[in-house]
Amino acid sequence: MVFPEAGISWVAKELDSLPSRPQDRFNVRPEDAEIFRGVIEPFWKERSLEDKIREACGPLTDDIALVAKINQKDHAQGHICPDTKKWIAKGPAGLCEEATAKLDTEADPGKQIFYRSLIIVLEASSRFMLRYAALAKELSGAGAYKDDLLEVARICEKLAIRPAETFHEAMQSLWFLYVILHMESNASSFSPGRMDQYLYPYYRKDLDAGRMGGARALEITQCLWLKFNQIVYLRNSHSAKYFAGFPIGFNVALGGQDIDGGDASNELSFIFLKAQASLLLPQPNLSARLFERSDSRFVEECARVIGKGSGMPQVFNDNSIIPALMNQGISKEDAVNYAIVGCVELTSHGNCLGWSDAAMFNMVKALELAVNGGKCLLTGKRMGPDLGNLEDHDAYEKLEAAFIGQVDYFMEKMLEACAVVERVHQQELPSPFLSSVINNCIETGIDVTAGGAKYNLSGIQVIQPANIADSMAAVKHLVYDTKRLSAKRLLGALRSNFDGEEALRQTLLNAAPKYGNDVAWVDEIAAKWVAYFASRLEGKKNYRGGRYHTGLYTVSAHVPMGQNVGATMDGRKAREPLADGGMSAVYGRDVSGPTALLKSVSRIDSKYGSNGTLLNMKFLPSFFATQEGIEKFAALLMALVRLNINHAQFNVVNEEDLLAAQREPEKHKNITIRVAGYTAYFVELAKDLQDEIIARTAYGGV
Amino acid sequence: MKGEIFDIKRFAVHDGPGIRATAFLKGCPLDCIWCHNPEGKRAGVDIRYNPRACIRCGACAAACPESAICLEGGIQIERTKCARCGRCALVCPASAISAAGYEIGADELIREFKKEEIFFRETGGITLSGGDPLFQPRFAKAVLEKAKEAGCHTAIETCLYAPEDVIESLIGAVDLWIADIKHLDAHEHRRLTGVENGPILSGYELLVKRGCKLLTRVPVIPGATDSPENLRAIGRYIAAVNQKGEVELMFYNSLGESKYAAYGLGGAMKGETYSAARKKEIVNLMAGTGINLVRGDNNAIL
Description:
The structure holds two protein chains of two kinds.
Chain A: H1 9-14, H2 30-44, H3 49-57, H4 60-64, E1 68-70, H5 84-105, H6 109-139, H7 146-161, H8 167-184, H9 195-198, H10 200-208, H11 214-228, H12 237-242, E2 251-255, H13 267-279, E3 285-290, H14 296-310, E4 314-317, H15 318-326, H16 332-336, E5 339-341, E6 345-347, E7 352-353, E8 359-362, H17 363-371, H18 396-428, H19 432-436, H20 441-444, E9 455-463, H21 465-481, H22 487-495, H23 502-510, H24 520-537, E10 547-551, H25 558-563, H26 594-602, E11 616-619, H27 627-642, E12 647-652, H28 655-663, E13 672-674, E14 679-681, H29 687-695
Parallel strand pairs in A: 2-3, 3-4, 7-9, 8-9, 9-10, 11-12
Antiparallel strand pairs in A: 1-8, 4-12, 5-6, 13-14
Helix pairs in contact in A: 3-18, 5-6, 5-8, 6-7, 8-11, 11-13, 13-14, 14-27, 17-18, 21-24
Chain B: E1 2-12, E2 20-25, E3 46-49, H1 59-63, E4 69-70, E5 76-77, H2 87-91, E6 97-100, E7 102-105, H3 106-114, H4 117-120, E8 125-130, H5 137-149, E9 153-158, H6 164-170, E10 176-180, H7 186-193, H8 198-209, E11 214-220, H9 228-241, E12 246-251, H10 257-262, H11 276-287, E13 292-293
Parallel strand pairs in B: 2-8, 8-9, 9-10, 10-11, 11-12, 12-13
Antiparallel strand pairs in B: 1-2, 1-7, 3-6, 4-5
Helix pairs in contact in B: 3-5, 9-11
């Protein structure tokens, strides 16, 4: 499917290379390519969202791109947790009735159009379900699955006109919702959220009525889990580098707490974990919510499934996330009921357009400009204001002042560009179907892109605290405090990418402590700059009238973003990747073990991660081989909760596996790896990303 | 009170219950042929060289007061000339040379341990290992007592080759003793470890008599301790003096080998690691002697 209304220039450019590009290859049928070239492309040229944004922004987004990368310029936002509970309870027919009732009393012509558009898409949804009913009936004629197919037909027919009543019907209803959402919007990461909570009544009712046993519930879940892997998202080659492995982001959150602070985990939480353990596929993106009073059986079961090596469930921390969301104006009730969308982005349930990937702000590039008088180290081109270079900064505080100057300069331009992007989305990509399942859009008659949701946030990612801490710690210690190095020599070495200065580079790497080793003063540098960035965003409003807030994750963007940055003061060479994840240390530099890393991470205030944070950790499979190991891992998870760390995810592999997979990919297609906030097939990743995963620190001994 | 250590390992998960922090004390009365911590054997500094990290800058050679380092094919450290002063490690920009062994005060070590406190909870705690902690008994005692005062669970990994009064003096400060029984034949014991096993067995029996919590470990080393006769004898001995006590088998691994080269130490044992089937045989043999064999994470059969 192509979505020409969002943008086609990249499809036009890359159509022929899709089957052979390095990351996320795709085959295209020749007849489809012909239709694209002959019909679609000529019509949509200059008419798409992408064209309109370019027209409105002028050169702005390109000028700031190396520091502030603005997203959603040629596709819809997605990253949203619809009110699946309401959808299942009402169905398209029930929602249609609601919209019709509102239309009858609405005087505003604009809102009337909104309600009419809802009625159109909801009626179409019912018809869409009936097509499946007809097809299932047609297929049921002969063969072993006759009864199953007739049951499918019955359910589809029912869901078109009435709400679901059984667990099976509810699961089918859920899947229709997500299929239709993907048809409306060219976007990833529509996430079901807390399925174990809102599906539990259906499960319980079936069980009590003797209609279904646990094994059947597991089977239905496994079927849905398979479906979650069938929608793949085709990205342009550049974006595929940032978000490698076709991630689509059906994020399902398990466990956590209820509004009274009790443990919310139930039998379904365990069934969903079991489905994951049995399939080990990249989707759904399974997340476990933990808190102080999580049932230890649930925590241990999570540890056991993590040990299976699919990187899931990833772990989220109620203790720190709920207050962080409340700090952004989200009510306690909604914050307690938080879900995760896509990879690690946080949201309230069914009522929030989080616009979580508004932009990524490369602080490391901004620091480069503070060190080099506003000029790019790679090209020598002027990018930011000239606030002096490292030689001019004769005190550490002066370097900090120049850094602030560069950050402020680019932040202002970034916010300008973000507003334009949101405005054009409102004009070009209204989303009536999505609006039907986001509170309060129907209530207010406002489309979700125009600010109809109860909460309207925009998330900016601060990239990358580890590199900032390591660079600032090295220059502080070696140039300003001990004066072992002159600013002149260091600047020269950075400009030449350490040509002939290997001993100096090694000194930067080894003579100053690094983030990730529980060295308070270094970690506090990371904390300080994240806090500065967040404080500058405070009070700024996005185009929908909501708040800006910060996230600390890159997914796999640390590789391409690193390619934009010259040599850095921490001894990193030009164009090398930045630290992975968001909260992680630069790989190979956290040499004091996982607990020290967690201590470091905990020094960055979790409230600045209200848009989501990402910490990657890697353990060897032997760690999970015994009950004792499982218990120790569970203890580590609970320590993470006490440390107020929002998120962590765990890769469980060994180096030999990965090297072998690189040599003979066809024999290792089954290895899944968490790239960052999601799981991908290792052999589908580009070589440099594979290398980088292999290089990440392995914990746990042998 | 100061002592000498060569490492502090955080997130130690093989040195007792829960998540622990382990300090490795320098010096050991034994000289086991399979030792995988050769840098812990003697007091003082041991110099480690990692050629893969070396950038051949020559800073170490220039700094060496004994002229023990020459730049030939990377660098060569003439170990007989080396006074183990550690200056080379201080100047090496790439950390290709590092020094194992440094002095630390008991209070300072406690401060280091406390960094891990949030991970200890009910189950975890601190462990002294080595080398052998009983090689520095007064320092070990000071650290263990301070840790107990701070409410920490304490464990000690020791060969128990120490005078009985030393062991006695530590009993109040140790929550868990982790001790090896290596060989029951006194002559073989001397050949393999450099000392006889008499004092070790007396120490062991003393701990049992005092009712100390004791985890017994049996190192299973190819061609050294793994004869059926020896394993059976060890099993029978433990069954006789400490029947309910938990016993773990520690199968040989070859991870120590590369360390000998890095520290310029001779005498690395080169053994074959056990297959899963062979491990199972040995587990069955030991279980047959009536001891309380536990499947800890040290002897996971993978």
